[in-house]
Amino acid sequence: MANPRYGLIGVGALGQHFASRLLEHFAPLSLYDVSPERLRIHSANGGVAKSSPAAVARCSDIVLLSVPDPQAVENVIGGADGVLQGASPGALVIDTSSIDPATSKRMFATCREQGVGYLEAPMTSAHPGSTGVEAARLGTFTVLVGGGLEDLERAKPVLEVLGNKLIHLGPAGSASVMKLISNQITGIAFIAIAEGLALAAAAGFSVQQTLDVLSQSCARSYCLEENVAPRVLSRDYEPGFSTSLMGKDHQLAAELAEQLNIEMPLNRLAVETYQRLTSEGRGRRHCTDVVNWVAEAANVDLYAPGWRQQ
């Protein structure tokens, strides 16, 4: 197809930046989101707001999804007013959401039944200065792909706008497995760093001293230097990948581990930790807010070393 029409469903934390990048290359772009205000932001740049996922699909040959969880994916694709109610045979769905492999496999089969292609394309990043929201803004994601190679060839022009590296991992479901593993390791690393920062503060070290030392030690990591350190130093925990989403991914990893009979005690701790943060009203903050939660639980102040509440 020489000039495919594109649509995007979900213009939230990452999706809004996907929309901006896609509009630079593929305008006009059909858009749908549960928030009309989010849609209005893009209307001046060639975004065409639609009333439903089905309406987006009617005007698109390739539809991208950026939604928060497996249930949202199922609703958007197969719901009463979902993509498959409007998609023509030969259309392609590209799901960038972080979900479980079982849902990806099910969506692949459901789409194929109606002659529609399905590709899972969750995204991650390990580029200095380019994590999460910034990677979405700059188009520097690593795109993990699961699905057919023919569908991947069709998807390359749009995926290469969103990421600078594509890794095809196998059939639908395979990319979701790897994305969950990546986030499982990352979330656990954040907790480990949080405990270290709290211990250092209680022992009298400033957060700057601690970060300086860790960045020159065997504890150095992308999670520390590109995620935690900038957030701690700026005290900015608002935009980006949220605590509730991190908890969701740890729970999905736990369910996958149970299916495969793999013991993951650290992941169980992570599930409990991020779920507790969410239940305490911190679910919409960036997931590195766990450093504050751990410090508060230990009665220490990261920014006042040696101070300890009695």
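[next item in queue]
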Amino acid sequence: MTTNSGCPISHNKNSLTAGPTGPVVLTDYPLLEKIKHFTREKIPPRNVHGPGYGALGVFTATNPNIAKYSMAKVFQAGKKTKFVARFSGVFVEQGEPDTYRDLRGLALKFKTEEGNWDLLMVNTPIFNCRDMKIGPDAVHALKKDPRTGMSNPNTFWDFIGHHPEAVHHTLMYFTDRVGTPASFRHQNWFGANTYSFINDKKERFFVRFHVTTDLPWIGLTEVQAKAVAGEDPGYLGRDLKAAIERGEFPKWKVQVQIMTEDQGYAMPNIAFDCTKAWKHDDFPLVELGVIECNENPIDYFTQVEEVAFSPARVVPGIGFSPDKLLQGRLLVYDDAQNHRIGANYKQLPINCPLHINSNYDSGGEMNLRTADRFPNYQGSVFNQNEPLPNPAYMEPPLRSDGPVDFYDAPGEGTDLDYYVQAREFLQVMEPKEYQNMCKNIATALVKADIRVITLMMKHFNAINPKLGSTLTSLMEDLSKGNVSATAALYAQLLKDPASCQTN
């Protein structure tokens, strides 16, 4: 056994003391090193996607025709690319059960020959906001009340009520398969933001990523989710790990919806608005390949906690779009990782690309690269072999369509903007799924302030009067005490904690 400097340790049970009863002497360096590292062994948790689990795997490209859309080498048919995956909650915080109602996230880091490509996804094809200016507010509304450190039943609904572009997403959030998944393995995943594909002719296409399972997309009921939370708070992570250990490697198809550049600019209210879904009839799924998670991490901290993702990490052939939420995410994710891990987090083995050829960054906390960085700037008589940009990777320009200003989303406030896709979503739901969604919404909404309930009911009635009447009836039953045994016990417990001893 050695210290972290490699020096042998002679004793690792008792502290070095002046006599049997002490005091402890400062020359016990192994003790000092051990306790100082212990107090620093955690890093700040992610503000979103806090609790998570990891897996390693391989992406196999399968479609020989993708080159007409993207020149990315990772998509060349037959090519295999290793990746690291992180499955997570979104708004829940570390220590909270896996089965709390929440979105779920899947982030993939592909180690390609052209650099790292990060693909960040959630288990809904849309988001609840479409501009990064609102992004922090959307997170705050689903987090704890800063006055109390506890959840507040008003804040979520109050936010949605004032941002009706989020109602379609909210309906999905309260389904069992999205809000309380039965397994990470039984989930579909979506990039939700709009990206670009660029081919070798410098033609741009707009795309949305889908990662779809061949397993049933299923969830737990509200009652089942609460029961599992009490029995095994880490249930989703344990299910993933156990499946990989059994050799039942989770697999998903990686697919994209594709539209031309002209189509995108002709319908910006759909193409670049991430609160809107693209209809599959208009933009069918095109397969890119298959991902398989076939290995569990062996060190949770270095492979799961320190892995760092950003949608800004793309490779030649993949680019961005005028999607306003995506534009903001290109900044916020890297900034978050700089805060959490430090300016050199990309040098950590889990984040480091296969190849790097740069000498323009130097120093900083925890710099791991020892290199001759002179001169550490571009353009010098002292470096005839300096790395240079390659214009072959230049993207075609994105269009600009007007003066700089603060613009509303196209069609802001109309029925088409707020309610049409939510109405269509209800029409394709299975009856049982619809019933459970209504129960889940009513159970959550009835706890809110009457002003918040009134605001939300205007939106639910605008989507569909039948939805509004169903929710009203369910909330009336809940208010009268016609509730499940679990909800009744909870209400009684709040009034009289001692009552749990007799009930």
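[queue empty]
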